[in-house]
Amino acid sequence: MDSQPCSGLKVLIVGAGFAGLTAAIECRRRGADVILFESAKDRRQLGDIISFGSNSGRIFRRWPGVEEALDPICHHSDGLDFRAFDDDFLIRQIWDSEEAWGKRFNGHRGEIHGIVWNHAVSIGVEIRLSSKVSEYFETDTEAGVVVHGEKISGDCVLAGDGVRSTARTIVLGFEDKPKSSGYAVYRSWMSTEPLKKDPLTAWLADPSKDLHVGWLGPDVHFLVATLQNGTACSWVLTHKDEADVEESWSAPGYVEDAIKTVEGWTPIVHAIIRATPEDRLVDWKLVFRDPLPTWVSPKARIALIGDAAHPFLPTSIQGASQSMEDGVTAAVCLELAGKSKVPEAIRAYEKIRYERVHAVQQTGVTNRDNWHKADFDQVKKNPESVKLPRQPWILNFDCQQHAYDVYAETVKSLQAGSDVPQSRAAL
Ligand SMILES: Cc1cc2nc3c(=O)[nH]c(=O)nc-3n(C[C@H](O)[C@H](O)[C@H](O)COP(=O)(O)OP(=O)(O)OC[C@H]3O[C@@H](n4cnc5c(N)ncnc54)[C@H](O)[C@@H]3O)c2cc1C
Asked: For the FAD-binding domain, which residue ranges apply (predicted)?
């Protein structure tokens, strides 16, 4: 950027996930002073597979050097093979029709996170580790956080503190409890070395190409992706689970429990699960939260971003992308409003994002039910029905351009008290 439209603006950001890092990078690119508070004591290589659609891929590509760093570590296949639970081939979904929409990035969350983190630091984002925010405050002229008893103020706070957000309680004035979604996911990221030893699974360790295969059965789906020249493999197994809600990215999973959810399935799926080292297996409970009535604090100087505002089911394949779109949109709004009109920017951010996010969130339920509630006799007759819907309104979308396009009319409708949702224009 040639100009520095946000210079003089001090933005405090909570949480160095993809929402917080994107907001930090985008505010910093526009010249704001940014302090990012992260409760973890160091940046660790956490998680497993994460997906960024072409709508967020274009955000990475605007950051110098990031696409080049992501390419070698990400998954590159031109399609997804669907098979039935008994290994009958159903259909191959090819992504070529989406090429014009831009580039997707799917890979290890920790590795991608490291690249984005390093980019943030390289452009001058100050990241404070071991900095758990314990309180938030706002006045008519500033907003801030309390960290280890110290009060730190800025023009606004963007709170991207994840699914267990405490900022959410401040904004809402009550604690929003999660509900069980009735499903859970066993997840693993592993080396392909153990797979090479079994003829049933050795084909997955193909150094010449990345593979993406999904096996679908009644109320269960199992997806495998290989990457990094056939050396790494990630799989997810989504199944019914009525257990009580405890969200965690690190709850241990057990091979025998995972096997029970695919009884009667093809031996290939059993062999992949049995080859998985148990210390590489996570049991992740999926929770629902009803859409929040607002993401903005009473004086409109604190805004929720990312999962803090809107946790996603993984079957939307959009949680991380939408958290990045939040960060970009908030930064554009702050740029256009300027230091003297920060509350206007924060309200416009919410209005621009709210309907789009909730429409995308719904696709997590519809995609899941399409696979899980399918009648498999019908699926075999009409395999097209299992293809993932790939909607251009989600994926062929430039959130930065959209924010620039609709900001003025959004502010006008806010001032008029109108409730016309601006993001509908793009749906
Ligand atoms: C450890 C971890 C592993 C994950 N692994 C995967 C994965 O494998 N695949 C996948 O699809 N998604 C994964 N996710 C979730 C995914 O990153 C998010 O759903 C999505 O990217 C939206 O990100 P976010 O920035 O809103 O939230 P998150 O990524 O959850 O980031 C929130 C951040 O806020 C920090 N934080 C929380 N409270 C405070 C506080 N009070 N003060 C300061 N900092 C605070 C957290 O430490 C965290 O770094 C993982 C998240 C985490 C935290």
From this structure: 10-361
The whole-angstrom separation of Cα 230 and Cα 173 is 49
How far is Cα 273 from Cα 194, in angstroms, rounded to an integer? 11
- Within 13 Å, how many C-alpha atoms sit on residue 228's CB side? 16
| Ligand 1 lining (C-beta closer than 6 Å) | 14-20, 37-40, 46-50, 109, 132-133, 160-162, 166, 249, 306-307, 314, 319-320, 323
Q: Which residues pair with 216 in a beta bridge?
A: 84, 221
**Of all helices (H) and strands (E), which one includes residue 326?**
helix 319-337
Q: Which is the catalytic residue, given 30, 187, 356, 368?
A: 187
Q: Which atom of ligand 1 is nearest to the CA of 16?
A: 49
CATH of span 179-288: 3.30.9.30
**Ligand 1 centroid, distance to 305 Cα (angstroms):** 12
CATH number of the 10-76+104-176+290-372+389-426 domain? 3.50.50.60
Q: Give me the tens of pLDDT residue by residue for the chain, a chain 427 residues long.
A: 445 788 899 999 999 999 999 999 999 999 999 999 999 999 987 889 999 999 999 999 999 999 999 999 999 998 999 999 999 999 999 988 888 999 999 999 999 999 999 999 999 999 999 999 999 999 999 999 999 999 999 999 999 999 889 999 988 888 888 787 888 999 999 999 999 999 999 999 999 999 999 999 998 999 999 999 999 999 999 998 876 656 666 678 999 999 999 999 999 999 999 999 999 999 988 887 888 999 999 999 999 999 999 988 888 889 999 999 999 999 999 999 999 999 999 999 999 999 999 999 988 888 888 888 778 788 888 888 888 888 999 999 999 999 999 999 999 999 998 654 444 334 3
The residues pairing with 48 across neighbouring beta strands, listed in sequence order, are: none
DSSP character for 311? -
Q: How far is the CA of 148 from the centre of ligand 1 (A)?
A: 21
Atom 15 in ligand 1: residue holding the nearest Cα: 320
Is 187 a residue of the active site? yes
Name residue 212's amino acid: H
* Residue 242 CA, ligand 1 centroid: distance in Å: 24
**Tokens read off for 314:** 């993984």
Using the structure block, give the residue that is written with the tokens 């009060």. 151
Best CA proximity match to 36, nearest among 132, 104, 107? 132
Residues of the chain with CATH 3.50.50.60: 10-76+104-176+290-372+389-426
